[in-house]
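Bench notes, afternoon.
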Amino acid sequence: MTADLVYLVAGGSLLLAIVLPALLDRWAISAPMVLVAVGIGLGFTSLPDGMPLDPQANRAAIEHVTELAVLVALMGVGLALDRPLSFRDRGSWRKWSSTWRLLGITMPLCIGAIALLAWGAGVAPAAALLLGAVLAPTDPVLASDVQVAGPQTGEDEEVDESDELRFALTSEAGLNDGLAFPFVYAAILLATEGAVHHWALEWVGFYLVGKIVLGVLAGIVVGRVLAYVAFRSASPSLRVAERGESLLALAALISAYGVAEVIGGYGFLAVFVCAMTFRSAERAHDYHAAMHQVAERLERLLTLFVLLVLGIALSRGLLASLDWRGVAIGLGLILVVRPVAGLVALSPMGPWESQLTGRQRWAAAFFGVRGVGSIYYLAYASGESAELGTDWLWSTVAFTIVASVLVHGALASPLMRLVDPGPDPDSELSRTAP
């Protein structure tokens, strides 16, 4: 019975993934909002009685499904970015200044603020730190309404991302999922090994530096190898770009993730770097758009499935342990912590000043969307320590995600039109919702 229900929910998610973007195009309602609401409604019926919804009992399944959703989203985000980044070109690094500020200032400030709020409210230090790490990253899955639409191709010269606001939010979402992992590991080490002085050097040397370097290297190597094979191989049968075989996007993300995990690096970071590296080869080739479409459609299906199940779980007791602390932390993050931390990071001062305008800075600071990545991090950490998988943490994270879906989903279209209306708002709004 359970398998039948999973197929039914998956089929419904696929149908909604096909029809919702066009139906909601002109409304301040996002597809995630609808899916969560539909899931909540289903939860009050007898239909999903056989579905495994308890996060404690089904932690491994939740971890793997959300992991796949984030991986596919990261591949799509990396392929969508048109702005090049070269390690040897200081000018290209400067063009990513908004991204570096959001990653280097906003995310640590959010992690620290949420951890302190939770600790001050009586949450154990390890769980408080984990909550900060889980909720700090902007989610690449649910943030598509405020991200770039996809790769520009078919040009005769190098293309570059012209929409600074969407580029900043997209590149931030692509990188911070991998860069949040060191802080998740810090919470795990605090819960399993005790006092900080027992593991501080290991954390800095391996989890903060070593695994990031290994993840980046894995992504670069896999991306370059696959790009060479797809575009420049001596064998015509291996030049899959000429045939438009877009399933290489899935092979690339699985390969990059697998290589990074085997050598001990961060797989999420490797997948994004692999996509960026592959995108840098034959930048104007139409093959990039074809690969992006595959990743985008699979991401949409996985995301809507996760949100539908999340909605069902909400009405089946997932929020039973939610208290005033969880509500205050969730709303505080969305309405105060992230916007303030974003404005601090994007303030017009210091080296490599952000290229965002005044209104764009406010929008970039506000749109810190929480989503599927937070569920994955919590499921992963709870598998390492029972202390990090309490019902209160699950309820708080679920509440924050739903609050983000409602607040950011309702405001994404009108605020993006207000900040940067562009020549054709309708065409901008027609970008695919998750």
